[in-house]
Design goal:
heterodimer, A: 315 residues, mainly alpha, ABC transporter involved in vitamin B12 uptake, BtuC, two-stranded antiparallel ribbon, 13 helices, B: 262 residues, Rossmann fold, 10 helices
Chain lengths: 315, 262
């Protein structure tokens, strides 16, 4: 009980203090990490926990970003309502994609979701009048309670609490009978079916959840970058999200945050190395797949027993 | 056959050119323990997979509790009250023993998705009740102490028991056991026997066992059907089947059958 209370106190305190101490640039990066973590959380749910390899994540992100932006520019729906609205719509398309593709599995599923991403990207490029076509479209300003949120410092107060709330909800579901069912399905579909679990339905729900989380993340990322370019929502970007998830730890929500932080800080650290960034990411991914397939969250630092100065558990 | 819980009528299953089951019929009476035996490749496992909905039939019908089930999805058949174990065990390896059982209990302690998100009051109540029932089931099969252990780390005999506990968790009317005695030591088979007899008498469970370990099936079965090359070659009480010449021929070959003849 006490560690839990301490966790909340520290969490809320640092949430309040951070904007006082940090510069705009860092707050912007924190927002970027939180939004990316939401997108990756979607992948953790569908790929890490439900075991369905998905390359549809960047399509969901794109649909979330474009959906909320179009709702705002065409019908004047403010982003704070538009992002959840379009995310629900995207979740429905995730459910539909799930129903359509989940009878296939493994590599074929990866290919089918990849095709979905390609189709969505092409649709965005070819719907000029609505989406601005290949040139893209600007994202309207985020307004809430009469306040205009333009900088990272402002959006921080929307993005961070929303992200925290969604992570909490996902964690709760994971610790429920739904989480148990989906985990069971990953480990043995045959046995899960024999237990009376409707495997297809659970997989489709996992896909819908990944779509929802991806779309919310996409809405936030759109507000942060203020411009949507269809080139950002291709297959490469899907692979990028998958890489973030693998490096962080595919089966852990916390891994989504860890992976996002690394992938957002690295380009900063390697300013002079920009041209080879892709290579660095690729090597990072490869290294983790070979050496640490369960990602960073599986790394346990040896805990020292200071009395005898030996790692614990060794005689 | 009004009192039969499971009624299989002339089912045929083909895999390409191979006929795995050839017009096989079978009746399992309510509250009985029935066994299907036969040499390797006789079609025993195929029959189990047909009943549980994993394979579809090329002819014939399967009726459970008065309803056709041969075109239903496996999970729908499971929900009607058919539970099973698997020949090589199909546990949820990374999950703890108790969680494995709780997956089986899923629909008996339900709550809505929104409740799961918010961890509302009925979440706690259902989870506690499910955990308690899962513990009771683990105790019933004699592995209560292993509740927190990951299923894949349990020794094989205990994995078998865990599979039975998980199957019982669905509160089945019919329990299908696929070679439950394979790989078990004699003492373990004996306690498995006692457990199954106890389940039948205490809960009125109907059990269909598929096996070729005679020690198990001969002692506890009310009826035994013998399959060979996809056909049913004999059926009856354990004593009758044991001495049937067709059965001896199937198991020991033509020469063996001659040698045994008085």
């Amino acid at each position: 009980m006490i560690p839990r209370v301490a966790f909340w106190v520290v969490g809320i305190a640092s949430f309040i203090i951070a904007p006082q101490l940090l510069a705009e640039y860092h707050l912007f990066q924190i927002c970027l990490i939180a939004s990316t973590a939401l997108v990756v959380l979607g992948l953790v749910v569908v790929t890490g926990i439900a075991g369905q390899i998905s390359l549809a994540q960047s399509a969901f992100v794109g649909l979330g970003g474009y959906g909320s932006a179009i709702l705002a520019t065409r019908w004047g729906v403010p982003l704070w309502a538009g992002i959840p609205l379009s995310s629900f719509a995207v979740a429905m398309s995730g459910l539909f994609l799930g129903q359509l593709t989940l009878r296939i599995s493994g590599h074929y599923l990866a290919l089918a979701t990849m095709a979905f991403t390609a189709i969505v990207q092409l649709a965005l490029i070819h719907s000029d009048p609505v989406t601005g076509g290949a040139a893209g479209m600007p994202v309207p300003v985020f307004r809430m309670f009469g306040v205009t949120l333009t900088t990272g410092r402002h959006l921080y107060y929307v993005i961070l609490p929303s992200t925290a709330l969604l992570f909490l909800l996902v964690r709760n579901v994971m610790k429920s009978r739904f989480g148990r069912a989906v985990t069971a399905i990953r480990q043995s579909e045959t046995a899960a079916e024999a237990m009376g679990l409707d495997v297809l339905r659970y997989k489709a729900i996992a896909f819908a959840a990944s779509g929802f989380l991806g779309a919310v993340g996409g809405g936030f990322l759109g507000s942060l970058s203020t411009y949507l370019d269809p080139a950002q929502f291709g297959i490469t970007q899907s692979v990028y999200f998958l890489a973030v998830a693998v490096v962080g730890g595919l089966s852990s929500p916390f891994g989504a945050i860890l992976g996002s932080a690394i992938f957002i800080f690295i380009p900063d650290l390697l300013q002079s190395f920009q041209t080879y960034l892709g290579l660095v990411f690729a090597l990072l991914l490869l290294g983790f797949i070979v050496l640490r397939p369960k990602g960073l969250t599986s790394v346990r630092l040896p805990r020292y027993d200071f009395a005898s100065l030996r790692p614990r558990g060794q005689q | 056959m009004t009192d039969s819980l499971l009624h299989i009528e002339n089912i045929t299953v083909r895999f390409g050119g191979i006929v795995a089951l050839n017009e096989v019929s079978l009746d399992v009476a309510r509250g009985s323990i029935q066994a299907v035996i036969g040499p390797n490749g006789a079609g025993k496992s195929t029959m189990l997979n047909v009943i549980s909905g994993l394979y579809s039939v090329d002819g014939g019908a399967v009726t459970f509790d008065g309803q056709r089930i041969d075109r239903r999805a496996p999970h729908a058949i499971g929900r009607m009250g058919v539970a099973r174990t698997f020949q090589n065990t199909e546990l949820f390896g990374e999950m703890s023993a108790i969680e494995n059982v709780m997956v089986g209990l899923d629909r008996h302690h339900p709550y809505k998705f929104a409740i799961a998100m918010a961890h509302g009051p009925s979440y706690r109540r259902s989870e506690i009740a499910a955990r308690r029932e899962a513990h009771e089931l683990l105790a019933l099969v004699g592995i209560a102490d292993d509740a927190p252990a990951a299923a894949s780390t349990l020794p094989f005999g205990k994995q078998r028991r865990l599979e039975i506990a998980r199957a019982l968790a669905t509160r089945p009317k019919l329990l299908l056991l696929d070679e439950p005695a394979a790989g078990l030591r004699a003492a373990e088979i004996e306690s498995l026997n006692l457990m199954l007899l106890n389940l039948r008498s205490a809960q009125g469970l109907t059990i269909l066992i598929i096996d070729h370990v005679m020690a198990l099936v001969m002692t506890i079965s009310d009826r035994i059907s013998v399959l060979n090359f996809g056909r049913k070659i004999a059926e009856g009480e354990p004593g009758e089947v044991r001495t049937a010449p067709e059965v001896i021929r199937a198991y020991l070959g033509e020469k063996g059958a001659h040698a045994l003849r008085p």
